[in-house]
Amino acid sequence: MKRYIVAITGASGSIYGCRMLQVLKEAGCFLYVTVSKPGRQVLKEEMGWVLEGRAEVVEERLREYLGYSSGDPALRYFDPEDLGAVIASGSAQNDGMIVIPCTMSTVSAIAHGTAGNLIERAADVMLKEGRPLVVVPRETPLNQVHLENMLKLARMGVHVVPAMPAFYHHPQTINDLVDFIVGRVLDLLGVEHHLYSRWGE
Ligand SMILES: Cc1cc2nc3c(=O)[nH]c(=O)nc-3n(C[C@H](O)[C@H](O)[C@H](O)COP(=O)(O)O)c2cc1C
Fold first, then answer.
1. What is the pLDDT of residues 25-49, one digit of tens each?
2. Quick one: pLDDT at residue 133?
3. What is the DSSP string of 58-82?
4. Chain-wide mean pLDDT for the chain?
5. CATH superfamily of the 3-189 domain
6. Bridge partners, residue 11, by sequence
7. Which of 105, 107, 121, 181 to probe ligand 1 with, by most ligand atoms within 8 A of CB?
8. DSSP 27
9. How far does the centroid of ligand 1 lie from the alpha carbon of residue 22, in Å?
10. Which residue's CA is the closest to the ligand 1 atom numbered 18?
11. Of the four listed, 15, 32, 39, 58, which is most buried by Cβ atoms within 10 Å?
């Protein structure tokens, strides 16, 4: 069973993070999830997901939202301030990490190795261990600092997948647009899916 770390930060586009969790669950992947405090604020605002309280409580709420049974170990949630969580260590086994959506603040922290919270530390671990790291930045317009930080990430081997859906697959709904981005991320991780029609197919 593949294991992925999914981090949701406080950028608009929390729907991308929710859909990523759903699709990885359906693909039978084991999930380590963490959500920044601003990420929880945006999830509430945009998706109506209320993730408040202790990590154990948030973990159960996530299981409910995603249709897991109570206590299912296939989804683990860690508080973003918990730097003692398993995903803070390179010894934890996993197949990669996705930060979706990713704020410019977290892009900057990863680019500069700040490792000040669990999301930044887990991403730092991916880099030092040479494991796949995908970030899905969501901001517009982009200033010089944003662009320089994303270039820094790309040069370090991070997959930078801006939340910029295409239109050649004739999307009809918001879900079609979301699935295109989620599908492009899964393509990079080698996770099979049928989320969008590929060009020429
Ligand atoms: C409703 C809302 C939407 C936001 N959208 C974005 C966004 O699209 N991109 C971004 O970089 N920051 C956005 N922010 C600002 C970040 O949440 C803020 O910079 C925060 O400190 C990021 O922290 P984090 O990276 O730990 O989640 C938004 C904030 C709010 C409240």
1. 999 999 999 999 999 999 999 999 9
2. 98
3. HHHHHHHHHTPPTT-TTEEE--TT-
4. 97
5. Flavin prenyltransferase-like (3.40.50.1950)
6. none
7. 105
8. T
9. 22
10. 10
11. 39
- 178 pLDDT tier (thresholds 50, 70, 90): very high
Under 8 Å between Cβ of 134 and 185: yes
Helix axes 37-47, 14-26, angle to 10 degrees: 90
Q: Give the whole-angstrom CA distance, residue 104 versus residue 179.
A: 22
Distance 116 CA to ligand 1 centre (A): 17
* Ligand 1 pocket check for 42: Cβ under 6 Å: yes
Say if ligand 1 is within 6 A of residue 11 CB.
yes
Q: Is 38 in the pocket of ligand 1 (CB under 6 A)?
A: yes
Higher pLDDT, 43 or 196: 43
Return all residues near 29 (Cβ < 8 A) that are at least 6 apart. 1, 2, 3, 4, 191
pLDDT attached to residue 198: 87
Strand order in the sheet with 30-35: 75-77, 30-35, 3-8, 97-102, 133-137, 159-160
Confidence band, pLDDT 50/70/90 cuts, at residue 156: very high
Cα dihedral: 92, 93, 99, 105 (round 10): 30
Closest by CA position to 190, among listed 159, 157, 152: 159
